[in-house]
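Supplementary Methods, section 5.1.

A reviewer requested that the exact input to the structure prediction be made available. We therefore reproduce it here, unchanged from the version used in the analyses.
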Amino acid sequence: MRLMKIEALYEDAVLLAVNKPAGLLAVPDRWDKAKDNLVALLQADRPGQHLANVHRLDKNTSGVFLLAKNADAFRRLARQFRQRQTRKLYLALVHGDINGRERVIDQPIGPDRKRPGFSRIDPRGKSARSLLRVREQFRGFALVEVEIESGRHHQVRVHCQQIGHPLVGDLDYGGKPLLLSQLKRGYKMKLGEPERPLMARPALHAASVVLVEPSVTITAPLPKDFEVALKYLRKFAV
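The structure derived from this sequence is encoded token-by-token as follows.
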């Protein structure tokens, strides 16, 4: 198991919130339990302490991740998520110019039977509602805040694809890599070297979670790759 410093965002007697790095599984892999994952890393760093994840994040999503320290806390926190008492806010970079400052996406989501492990819009699926707000509009791209009222598998990614604004770097749901050569005029390629994308993953970050009990708002700073992408968009795509 690799060593990795995990940033704690909030901690009390019953709850631990950490800033999950992108590229790390949140929970043990279904088929290969030996793969590195955030829960196992935290558990190894806190021997003898019970930790149970209250929700999930995709491997390539960064941001706020909550764990309960005992069974009672887990039940109370899980109930808040189940009854939709929490507020979950994501930041995403998406393709395109978005009309208006807000969009409500109310489309049911179900499993994609042609692609196991993925999701799609399905009239017979489970209800899913997302509120999208434009934070910054660039030339051909936008930084958006997405508040999800439900928590369906790949909800933000599926809903953004549905409205024609897939996430930057999300190759599985219609997105494309963000390249500096797309933004910077006169960009010179290095001979014999392929251009590395500014973000090599879906541009999605779990920015904050607002809880009822305890009454607390937990926020996670943007990771370096997201900050770098924004820096170049602000410099070359306005």
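The mean pLDDT is 94. These observations are discussed further in the main text.
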